[in-house]
Amino acid sequence: MSSVKSEKIKSGWLFSFGDMITLLITFFILMIVLNKGEISKVQKWLEDDLDQVSIELTGQFQDAIFVKVKRTSLGVEIDINNDQAFVEGGFNPSEGLAKELTLVGEELKKIPLLTEEQSKVLPAGVAYDAKKQGLNLRREISIAGYTDNAKINPESSLRNNWFLSTMRAESVMQLLMESSGLPQKLFGIAGYGMYRPIASNDTPDGRAKNRRVKIVITANFTHQSKVEEKSS
Questions:
Q1: pTM for this one?
Q2: pLDDT for 124-178, tens place per residue?
Q3: Where do the domains of the chain lie, and which CATH numbers do they carry?
Q4: Could you give the dihedral angle defined by the CA atoms of residues 145, 68, 88 and 213, in that order, rounded to the nearest 10 degrees?
Q5: Higher local confidence (pLDDT), 56 or 19
Q6: φ, ψ for residue 168, nearest 5 deg
Q7: Pairing mode of beta strands 187-191, 135-146
Q8: Is 153 left (phi over 0), alpha (psi -120 to 50) or beta?
Q9: What is the rounded CA–CA span in Å between residue 88 and residue 185?
């Protein structure tokens, strides 16, 4: 009889322990869902702001010859894809591209998302949620250069397509920095040469499409710990 009673006590304890574990798991799942909801709310504000930036820049440059603006999943993209964009065989922007890039820079310095500190650019509710979650606003203007697969003249100082694509990206960055007055830390460049084509290099039209520079304005929230790791 006592053994039966003992078994009941044991099984009762096990059920109580099981209930407690279930409650804890439910609690943690709820916290994750709520936290994700808050992050989504913060991120939605950011996406809406990038949408507005895209609308404004698209309106300003809808008739531009050298720069084309579009909204992508990465952010606000400004494409330069014109055979007259750079001095022939070199990396310096042509006079026409330089004028348009100067105008782009002047527009960038009007965008609060790029120019204001986090405490000033975020609405009160968004700023509260971001602070509570330890999130920091990270902005970047990344510029990438690409080429076709045509070989560089061995006598040229450009050496190869890697170098040419990087120098074109850098020359675009310099013009944007000078005309916008934005800090250098906001900018990043990369050169991919011929290794990320968007068309076939087997035709003149395809090669022309592959000779391009892409500017992407991005913004996202990162956790404070990750920001500290990058800065250290």
A1: 0.78
A2: 888 888 888 888 889 999 999 999 999 888 777 888 999 999 999 999 999 999 9
A3: 2-231 (3.30.1330.60)
A4: 0
A5: 56
A6: -65, -40
A7: parallel
A8: beta
A9: 30
